[in-house]
Amino acid sequence: QVQLVESGGGLVQPGGSLRLSCAASGSLFSIYAMGWYRQAPGKQRALVADITSGGISNVVDSVKGRFTISRDNAKKMVYLQMNSLKPEDTAVYYCRARRAVAGSWADDYWGQGTQVTVSS
């Protein structure tokens, strides 16, 4: 089993920056695709950014140019660098790990989430 622990959330003013971290357990971290998702109150959890086991990253249009996802396989860490934060970025942010197997997905692990609040 993979365990994921997020950290780095907090309160920040609009225009500020935060870096979220996700620490993973297990010895097979490098084979997992990783993602950051967020969920605001009353809204569905949604993808923010993901990165393949090979290090290919993608971010959704609403955060493109502001957020960057990265991974460090040696440290078994995934990061979400968030710049130019806006109030609409306020949400609980979750780390996710999945394996790409036989053209589909296997396993599926989530962290507990970390709160990001963007407010003046």
In words, what does this structure look like?
Strands 2, 4, 5, 6, 9, 10 and 11 form a seven-stranded mixed β-sheet that branches. A four-stranded antiparallel β-sheet has the order 1-3-8-7, with no helix packed on it. The chain has 120 residues and is an all-beta fold. The protein is built from no helices and eleven strands. 0% of the residues lie in helices and 55% in strands. 29% of the residues are buried.
Task: Report the mean per-residue pLDDT as an integer.
Answer: 96
Structural class: mainly beta
The first-to-last residue Cα distance is 40 Å
Strand content: over 45%
Tell me the number of helical segments per DSSP (H or I, 4 or more residues long). 0
Helix content: under 10%
Strand elements, count: 11
Largest sheet properties: 7 strands, mixed
Shape: globular
What is the element string, with H for helices and E for strands? EEEEEEEEEEE
Question: Which spans have pLDDT < 50 for at least 5 consecutive residues?
Answer: none
Map the helices and strands.
Blueprint: E1 4-7, E2 10-12, E3 18-24, E4 32-39, E5 46-51, E6 57-59, E7 67-72, E8 77-82, E9 91-101, E10 104-110, E11 114-118
Parallel strand pairs: 2-11
Antiparallel strand pairs: 1-3, 3-8, 4-5, 4-9, 5-6, 7-8, 9-10, 9-11
